[in-house]
Design goal:
The complex is a heterodimer of chains A (272) and B (371). Chain A is α/β, with parallel strands linked by helices. Chain A has a single domain, classed as Thiamin diphosphate (ThDP)-binding fold, Pyr/PP domains (Rossmann fold). Chain A contains ten helices and ten strands. An eight-stranded mixed β-sheet of chain A has the order 4-1-5-6-8-7-9-10, sandwiched between helices. Chain B contains 13 helices and 16 strands. Chain B has helices spanning 7-18, 32-44, 57-70, 80-85, 89-95, 120-123, 138-153, 182-188, 212-227, 229-244, 271-283, 301-307, 351-362, and strands at residues 2-6, 22-25, 50-53, 74-78, 101-106, 131-134, 161-166, 174-178, 205-206, 252-255, 262-266, 288-293, 295-297, 313-318, 338-341, 367-370. In chain B, helix 13 (351-362) links the parallel strand 15 and strand 16 (367-370). Chain B is globular and about 65 Å long. Classes of the chains: A alpha/beta (272), B alpha/beta (371). At the A-B interface, helix 2, strand 2, strand 4, helix 3 and helix 5 of A face strand 3, helix 3 and strand 9 of B. Strand 4 (63-67) of chain A pairs parallel with strand 9 (205-206) of chain B, so a sheet runs across the interface.
Chain lengths: 272, 371
């Protein structure tokens, strides 16, 4: 039986208006099924808050809050301290922020939370651009990818969040992909069992922004791992361990070629 | 117990007595000593709270929002650039109806850089949805710390409260203040209870979007809650006087305004000197009065009209300028035809300056005047 089959049958994030094939909403939905009804979700401005919190159509059955854009981690810090002060036990403070909300505008607050080792689970759903505002370049947009603010393809490489996070000496960090759901579930479960700050960075393709079909999200997220563009790994006790070795590193050009965002930009690959 | 305290110390004492459970703060001059005192209280066990060392003022207020969302009493403090750095979070906290109390040490805003006191910082944020009050002295600062929580946390208000202390003039000068006992404070301030919090029995979505068809309803609710503050202040002050034997006069503090022909309207720590000047003018037959605004949100329109009943002319003396118009306070009071801008960047305002304002009023001067 696959890990996914053991998931809570209940839905905690549904009735939202995310685009068809949205990788980010899949990452949120699955993580909440793992963490359960005593998870308190914080989401900054971004795709998931824009699709999930439109009064009176509110899509979370958990307690959930939209934070200011830069403030995902600092709101989580306050929530954690406040609930602990109220005498609550057995809860998870989880954040879901996009790549821009994490690696750009939210980095300062995230750094502070890890530095304090606040007991939170921070999940970055990385769709590699500011998708909610219409596909603008973020610090996690890969080299060569076309966005509406890099019409000729991005000329900077994707920021190395893993290195930034591990430089803080965090208790647990992991990368994941919505193409490897069992691996993602295992990592969320593990994060939930560890005290202190946990960071999971999940690759979550966006069909609209990537120029792929809406039924290709999971497939392309899997392919990113298989060709070695996105490494699945986890960090514990100061050491990174690779979880799944790339199966087809020789097929990396196919990964780029099937996405509209890399077409005709003149910079086709990470090594470009 | 009577103690010799700075304004910041006094506010810290009042905050300790209010028993906040989460304090998040980032240092900025001249706010620092209030959070230093609170960290000492936490360290020595006289205050049982989490003291969270955040990485910015934006995080200080967003952390306070998180804690408030968890349902606990919170405190933060800032000043000047710090207030502006957290500006995004000000209407956010107000719209989210989080009754956070924040002390702001009034300080000039850059550029040019200047660490001294004026009121440009808080008055630039007057529309952010926070209750705004201005203390005159250390005792009032301490008392505001207690009263601010009482008022902010009333269910019909549930709105954040910014208490302003003039940077250095009040935050760093020492005077005697009475520090009440914990049991007196506990009699005054009930435990914080709210439905606007994370609850595992009845989960809610907070901080949501509201489109054009709903937006005004939320904003109007906020506005009406703010208007409830007037009545809440009156009720809180009666209750306060009953326990602490100190009386306050509501949104304004009107001094010799009953029959005044010339009224000087101002706020904060300069008010005492204004009253002294008014007294000396009275001795020479000039019917001078001073109207100190204790609150500017909600704005005390009715109280001002009442205080100006007998006035031939009124002036506003304030430590800010809304560049391209007048001072922020003067823009609220059409009855005051003279607006005097002084004290910017900590510049001294002397008794002579204040006498010159009353003289200008008697000469029928109008418009904007710089000290």
């Amino acid at each position: 039986m696959a890990v996914a089959d053991k998931l809570d049958a209940r839905e905690f994030f549904f009735g939202h208006k995310a685009c068809a094939g949205c990788g980010g909403s899949l990452a949120v939905r699955i993580a909440l099924k793992v963490l359960g009804e005593r998870a308190v979700a914080t989401l900054p401005a971004g795709c998931m808050s824009a699709v999930g919190f439109n009064f009176p159509q509110l899509a979370f059955t958990n307690n959930a809050f939209i934070s200011p854009f830069a403030a995902t981690a600092s709101v989580m810090t306050g929530l954690e301290a406040g609930l602990r002060r109220r005498g609550e036990t057995d809860y998870h403070i989880v954040g879901f922020a996009g790549d821009g909300g994490t690696a750009d505008i939210g980095l300062q607050a995230l750094s502070g939370a890890i530095d304090r080792n606040d007991n939170i689970i921070y999940i970055c759903y990385d769709n590699e651009a500011y998708m909610n505002t219409g596909i603008q370049k973020s610090g996690l947009t890969p080299l060569g990818a076309r966005t509406t603010t890099t019409p000729g393809g991005s000329r900077s490489r994707k920021k190395d969040m893993s290195a930034i996070i591990d430089a803080h000496g965090i208790p647990y960090a992991a990368t994941a992909s919505v193409g490897y759901i069992d691996d993602y579930i295992r990592k969320v479960e593990k994060a939930a069992s560890i005290k202190g700050t946990k960071y999971i960075h999940v690759l979550a393709p966006c069909p609209t922004g990537w120029g792929i079909a809406t039924d290709e999200t999971v497939e392309i997220a899997r392919e990113a791992v298989d060709v070695g563009v996105w490494e699945l790994k986890e960090y514990e006790n100061g050491i990174w361990t690779t979880n799944i070795e790339p199966k087809n590193p020789d097929r990396v050009e196919e990964y780029y070629a099937r996405q509209g965002r890399f077409r005709n930009t003149g910079r086709k690959t990470q090594n470009g | 117990m009577r103690k010799f305290l700075s304004g910041n110390d006094a506010f810290a004492e009042g905050t300790r007595l209010a028993r906040p459970q989460v304090i998040s703060a980032y240092p900025i001059t001249p706010q620092t000593t209030v959070v230093e005192r609170l960290s000492e209280f936490v360290e020595d066990g006289s205050l049982d709270a989490e003291f969270i060392h955040v990485e910015s003022e934006h995080s200080a207020l967003s952390c306070a929002m998180g804690a408030s969302l968890a349902g606990v009493r919170t405190f933060t403090a800032t000043s000047s650039q710090g207030l502006l750095y957290m500006a995004e979070c000000l209407p956010y906290a107000a719209g989210g109806r989080f009754p956070i109390v924040m002390m702001n040490a009034n300080r000039s805003i850059a550029l040019p850089w200047n660490i001294y006191g004026d009121q440009s910082d808080s008055l630039s944020q007057i529309s952010s949805g926070w209750i705004q009050a201005y203390a005159e002295n250390a005792q009032e600062a301490l008392d505001f710390a207690l009263m601010s929580y009482y008022i902010a946390e009333l269910p019909e208000i549930s709105t954040p409260f910014m208490v302003n202390l003039d940077g250095f003039h009040l935050t760093h000068t020492y005077e005697v203040a009475d520090v009440p006992t914990q049991s007196q404070a506990d009699d005054f301030l009930p435990k914080y209870e709210t439905a606007n919090r994370v609850n595992f029995q009845t989960p809610q979505n907070f901080g949501f979007s509201a489109g054009p068809e709903w937006n005004a309803r939320f904003k109007r609710n906020q506005h009406e809650a703010m208007l409830n503050v007037r009545e809440a202040v009156a009720e809180a002050e009666i209750r306060f006087a009953g326990i602490f034997r100190r009386k306050y006069g509501g949104l304004v503090d009107a001094y010799r305004c009953d029959d005044a022909e010339y009224v000087l309207i101002t706020l904060g720590s300069i008010s005492g000197l204004c009253r002294e000047v008014a007294d000396s003018l009275r001795e020479s037959g000039v019917k001078a009065g001073v109207l100190r605004l204790r609150y500017v949100r909600p704005f005390p329109d009715a109280e001002i009209l009442g205080a100006l009943r007998t006035a031939k002319a009124a002036a506003v003396l304030e430590k800010d300028i809304s560049v391209g118009h007048t001072g922020v306070i003067a823009a609220h009071i059409p009855q005051a035809k003279l607006n005097v801008i002084g004290g910017l960047g900590g510049a001294d305002i002397s008794a002579e300056h204040i006498r010159s304002i009353f003289a200008a009023l008697r000469d029928g001067e109008e418009g904007l005047k710089w000290l």
